[in-house]
Design goal:
Oligomer: single chain
Strand order of the largest sheet: 1-2-3-4
Number of strands: 4
Distance between the termini: 100 Å
Mean pLDDT: 73
Low-confidence stretches: 2-56
Number of helices: 3
């Protein structure tokens, strides 16, 4: 009978500890919710005030566009390492896998990617050489962007990023001059 009492007391003690821990965790979660989340983000372009009733646009994690651009970026890097230059056209790129041709159109918009070997210049020594023809991804364009090599004598490395339409327009619009 002592063992039953001891087991019962241990069970009650265990339940009290678990309830105490759960209450403590719920209290911490409540404090976090009350305090709110703060985010620090930096932008390379001057920001314009957003309308308060506008939802921020988010890229879908199911967006099919980055994957074929990663393949293109790899093919561009292979071409650069062999010939020390970018190809004249994307059609001149051999595929990474001989049995799988490179996708040269956006899977979402079905528009052909724009290829500009000279690149569109962006801040921080970056330039986009392949990019979506339209901002079909929540007002973003996926692009293959090169950055200047970190070490002399090394090739620049391509990266696939999403560029907001505002940043893209800022990089491609010609300045206006007032009279």
């Amino acid at each position: 009978m002592n063992t039953k009492k001891k087991t019962s007391c241990n069970f009650v003690s265990l339940v009290d500890k678990n309830l105490g821990a759960a209450s403590w965790m719920a209290g911490v979660a409540l404090l976090v919710l009350i305090a709110g989340c703060k985010s620090t983000t930096t932008s390379t372009t001057t920001s314009q005030p957003q309308q308060s009733n506008r939802q921020p646009q988010v890229l879908s994690p199911f967006d099919p566009c980055p994957e074929p651009l990663q393949d293109l970026a790899g093919a561009l890097l292979n071409f650069m390492s062999q010939y020390n230059r970018l190809p004249p056209t994307l059609e001149d790129l051999p595929p990474l896998k001989p049995s799988t041709p490179l996708a040269l159109t956006c899977p979402l918009s079905k528009q052909k990617y724009i290829y500009n070997p000279d690149g569109i210049k962006f801040p921080q020594g970056r330039w986009a050489v392949v990019y979506d023809a339209a901002p079909s991804h929540s007002n973003y364009r996926w692009a293959i962007v090169f950055a200047e090599a970190k070490q002399a004598g090394h090739a620049p490395v391509p990266t696939v990023i999403a560029i907001s339409e505002a940043e893209f327009k800022a990089a491609t619009e010609l300045p206006t001059f007032s009279k």
